[in-house]
Design goal:
The chain is of the alpha/beta class and about 575 residues long. The chain is about 25% helix and about 15% strand. The strands form 5 sheets. It has an 8-stranded parallel β-sheet with strand order 11-10-7-3-2-1-13-12. It has a 6-stranded antiparallel β-sheet with strand order 14-15-16-21-18-19. The protein has a 3-stranded antiparallel β-sheet with strand order 4-6-5, with no helix packed on it. The protein binds alpha-D-glucopyranose. Alpha-D-glucopyranose binds next to loops.
């Protein structure tokens, strides 16, 4: 598991013990008058990202078009019809820039080009144009905390203390001969300082040694990064996912981090990270970045990779009540809640409704850095039901939905079984405690043919998961009860049902620790109820009192588990199978 989650999930767990403040409060819907309509919702005047389904593509693993066993841009273009039919509004593509690929693209050596293994700028332009024809927007991954050590800026910076690029990175003397400047650790193991014999100083890297951190205290760095963002905005991208954005600044006094009890997966002492992330200076940069992208038309969006310990911290990344930083910092309180607990989910969803100053929540359960949900929440018996329930939470709450390729077919996490197989370097440094992130990055499973249809080359960069003959797009398209058809149904409801599309949200039955329920109410007063059974036992609940009014029944719009076939439910006795979820419109 990604180490960042382990530590923050721990903090989140502690925070979850605190009392929830405002259960059952109505939503803080934020109106956006005068904004242009989204293709997804002709009747809505909101910016497109407020109702969007955003689909993360890990480009190495989505579709190979040139038989080298690695996915590429033309492969993504070939699959755009699939994404349109799934109901996706935007794709976020993990880094496709030229890179030595130490961190599979998150180590960039040229920000304004495409790595030849993924294609060319012409392929990229074609992808954007083809996606646009299908009303799919393209979001880039902006990796601005660090470059590759092969980036010309770093090569210059390392060359001498007087080089004009020296101050583009974070260089310091050791505190004694052979000793780094302080005790700071890299998230990827061991000291965050690397000695460079050329000048006898150390450079700082929060991630791999090959990913030196840029010095955001130097205004030239900000200028270069904003110019890079403009380059892609001018090419028509709809916005960015800001990688490791909480790490842009570090404490310039370089005081040691506090040492905590125990050791981490790499055998280093546990330490706080308060001097290495979340420094207040970053918010000034976010405000300037937001002003810059707001000069572009069509609601360009900033999404944050914001692993934060609390909703209070999350709210700061929106700019709080000023709404002037990121539109969509990722909320990890919900999707990375450590266990399946209805009370905790209610608490965190409610926080997103009531404690972020009317900003728009962004929920996410999966990405390329963490084991997929079945490995985190599954009990081995009801995994499919649990994943369907989580999808209900993702798509039927008021949140913008961020999903990860393969979730829609319930692709498994397939960890390497020996150190020799590992591709992700943290899995090599940390083996066997930390097996790296290969498990959640395996090739997309399209069909039962060679390499699951991902490539015509059987030698793919990571092995295809062994279950591909049954778990794949082609097979699941034919099965009405498949995960794929559940996703399609939920995404279509979210788009076309006004209450689910743009309705307010109210938590219901707040004392129930087995079943999580809420309602969505459309602008013209139609009410849709949603109920999710968080247990392995059947449950029966009543929502009649919570909803009030004369209605006794609700029409079923979607039901997972054993309740298929019923067209309506009695609001006084709603039956839910183990981990079942139900969406129904009150008559
Ligand atoms: C982010 C990315 C992760 C990468 C790291 C360093 O956390 O999601 O994959 O390794 O940044 O760039």
């Amino acid at each position: 598991m990604y180490v960042r989650i382990v530590s923050l999930a721990f903090i989140a767990g502690l925070l979850a013990l605190l009392p929830s403040s405002a259960q059952n409060a109505p939503s803080g819907m934020m109106g956006s008058p005068g904004k242009s309509a989204s293709h997804a919702a002709p009747h809505s005047t909101d910016p497109w990202w407020k109702h969007a389904v955003i689909y993360e593509i890990y480009p190495r693993s989505f579709q190979d078009s040139n038989r080298d066993g690695v996915g590429d841009l033309n492969g993504i273009t070939r699959r755009l019809d699939y994404l349109r039919d799934l109901g996706v509004d935007a794709i976020w593509i993990a880094p496709i820039y030229p890179s030595p690929q130490v961190d599979f693209g998150y180590d960039i050596s040229d920000y304004q080009n495409i790595d030849p293994q993924y294609g060319t700028l012409a392929d990229f332009d074609r992808l954007v144009a083809q996606a646009k024809k299908r009303n799919i927007r393209v979001l880039m991954d902006a990796v601005m905390n660090h470059t590759s050590d092969k980036h010309p800026w770093f090569i210059e910076s390392e060359s001498s203390k007087t080089n004009p690029k020296r101050n583009w990175y974070v260089w310091r003397d050791g505190r004694a001969p052979g000793e780094p400047p302080n005790n700071w650790l890299s998230l990827f193991g061991h000291s965050a300082w690397q000695f460079s014999p050329r000048t006898g100083q150390y450079y700082y890297h929060y991630f791999y040694i090959q990913q030196p951190d840029l010095n955001w205290r130097n205004p030239q760095v900000e200028a270069a990064m904003f110019q890079m963002l403009r380059f892609w905005l001018d090419r028509g991208v709809a916005g960015f996912r800001l990688d490791a954005v909480i790490n842009l600044f570090e404490d310039s006094s370089l005081q040691d981090e506090e040492v905590l009890p125990g050791t981490n997966k790499f055998g280093d002492p546990n330490e706080s990270t308060s001097r290495q992330e979340g420094l207040p200076e970053v918010h000034d940069v976010m405000r300037r970045m937001r002003s810059m992208i707001d000069t572009y038309p069509d609601h360009r969006v900033l999404i944050g990779e914001t692993y934060l310990p609390s909703v209070e911290e999350l709210d700061k990344w929106y700019g709080g009540a000023k709404h002037n930083e990121l539109q969509l910092p990722m909320d990890i309180q919900v999707g990375f809640e450590p266990k399946l607990d209805a009370n905790e989910f209610r608490h965190h969803i409610n926080d997103a409704e009531t404690r972020i100053d009317g900003n728009q929540p962004l929920f996410v359960f999966d990405n390329h850095d963490n084991p997929r949900t079945a490995s985190r929440y599954g009990d081995g018996i009801h995994n499919a039901a649990i994943d369907k329930m989580l999808a209900t939470i993702l798509f039927a709450t008021r949140s913008t939905a961020l999903m990860y390729y393969g979730d829609e077919i319930e692709m498994p996490t397939t960890e390497p079984t020996s150190k020799e197989q590992v591709k992700d370097p943290i899995g090599i440094t940390g083996w066997p405690n930390e097996k790296g992130r290969d498990g959640e990055r395996t090739p997309m499973q399209w069909n039962s043919l060679v390499a699951a249809g991902f490539s015509t080359n059987p030698h793919t960069w990571l092995p295809v998961a062994p279950d591909y003959k049954t778990v794949n797009v082609q097979m699941e398209s034919k099965d009405p009860d498949s995960m794929l058809n559940w996703y399609k149904k939920l995404i279509a409801l979210r788009r076309h049902n006004p209450a689910l599309h743009e309705g307010t949200m109210t938590m219901l039955d707040g004392a129930n620790s087995q079943v999580l329920s809420w309602s969505r109410t459309s602008p013209n007063g139609r009410v849709v109820i949603v109920a999710c059974n968080f247990t392995a036992d059947p449950q029966v609940i009543s929502l009649q009192g919570a909803i009030g009014g004369p209605a006794k029944t609700a029409n079923v719009l979607a039901a997972s588990g054993g309740s298929q076939g019923k067209s309506f439910v009695d609001l006084n006795a709603i039956s839910l199978p183990p981990y079942g979820s139900l969406i129904a419109e009150v008559k």
